[in-house]
Amino acid sequence: MSALLERDPRRLFAAVLSLLEAKGMLSEADLAERIALTDAATPGQGARMVARAWVDPTYRALMLADGTRAAEALGIPMRGAPPLGVLENRPGLHHLVVCTLCSCYPRAVLGYPPFWFKSAAYRARAVRDPRGLIAEWGTVLPAGTEIVVVDSTADYRWMVLPLRPAGSEGLDEAALTALVREGDMIGVTVPAFGR
Amino acid sequence: MTPLAPGARVRVRDDWPETRGPAHIRTPHYVRGREGVVVRHLGDFPNPEDLAFAREAAILPLYHVRFAPRHIWPSGVSADGLLVELFGPWLEAQR
Question: How many CB atoms are closer than 10 A to CB A129?
C-alpha cells in the first residue's frame, strides 16, 4: 500500500484509468458524466429545494417524506447517491447536522462540505454545545428554541429545511432561492432577509 | 430479531469491538451503553462492519434513535436532543 502511495499520482491515475477502460468497467464518457454531475452539485441545488418548499405545501410534504424524490422532482441527479433525509425547522425547533465519525454530507444537493465541517473541533463541539458553536456564526435563536443535533453516522445524508425568514413574504421563488446559504441547510446559520 | 417500533426504549450495547482487532464501526463512542428512544425505522442496509472488509454483508435494519445529551455529558451541554442512525444489532430493547 505505502509503495503505491509513493508513486507519481498522475501516473498511478493514468494506469488505473487505462486498466478500467481495458476491462470495460469505465469509459471516458462515464468519467465526463461523473465530473459534470460533481460540478453541478452545489448548495444552489439545495437552495432550490428549500425555496420550492417555502412556496408549495405539496412539495414541502414530499421533501419531508422523501428527500431523494423531492430532489429528483427538481431535476437534481440522485442516481448512486445515498438516501436524502430532510429535517424540518419549526418555530421553537432547530436542527444542526454533523458527522462525528467522518464527513458524511449530502453532496448531491449541497456539493463539497465546507472545510470546517470535517474539522475535529466542529464534530466534537456540535453534539455537545451546538448553541455555543452556532453563536460563533452569529446565530442566536429565539429564547426557548430546542436544538436537536443530527449525527450522520450511517447510510442517510441529512439537510435542514430552514424557516422562511420574516420580511420575505413578497419575494418570488427565484429571489427566495438566492436567500438560502449553505450554512442554513447545515443549521449553523438561519436565512435572513436583507442579510 | 423483532423490529423496533417508534417510541421503543433501547440501550446501545456497551461493546468495543475495536479493542479486539481491526474494525469499522458506525456506532459513536458517546452512545455506547446509553439509553435512547427509537424515532423511526429508516430502512435496511448492508452491514458497514462487513462491507469495510469486503466480506459478505447482512442486510440490517437502520433506526433513528434519539438520546438526551444531558444524560451523556456531565456539563457544558446546550443540545436538547441528539439523533443518531444505529443498526439493529447494536440496540437492546428496554422495558
Answer: 19
**What is the per-residue pLDDT across A128-176, written as a single tens digit (0 to 9) for each?**
999 999 999 999 999 999 999 999 999 999 999 999 999 999 999 999 9
Most B CBs within 10 A among A139, A149, A157, hence the mutation to make, goes to A149
CA angle A68, A189, A138 (to 5 degrees): 170
> Does any domain span residue A6?
yes
Residues of A in contact with B78 (CB under 8 A): 128-132, 147
Contacts of A147 in chain B (CB under 8 A): 78-81
Residue A89 and residue A16 share a domain: no
Q: Is A129 close to B78, i.e. CB distance below 8 A?
A: yes
**A28-65: per-residue pLDDT in tens?**
888 898 898 889 999 999 999 999 999 999 999 999 99
The burial of A163, by beta-carbon neighbours within 10 Å (0-12 exposed, 13-18 middle, 19 or more buried), is given as middle
CA–CA min distance A128, chain B (Å): 5
CA angle A38, A153, A120 (to 5 degrees): 80
- Could you give the number of structural domains in chain B? 1
Range of the domain at A116: 42-186
- DSSP-derived secondary structure for A80-127: TPPPEEEEE-BTTEEEEEE-SSS----HHHH-SPPGGGGSHHHHHHHH
Q: Is the ipTM of this complex over 0.85?
A: yes
Counted domains in chain A: 2
Instruction: Give the whole-angstrom CA distance, residue A188 versus residue A33.
Output: 32
A134, three cell numbers: 452556532
Residue A80 and residue A9 share a domain: no
Which of chain B's residues have a Cβ under 8 Å away from the Cβ of A83?
42-43
- End-to-end Cα distance, chain B: 16
Going from the C-alpha of A29 to that of each of A32, A80, B78, the distances in angstroms are 5, 17, 49
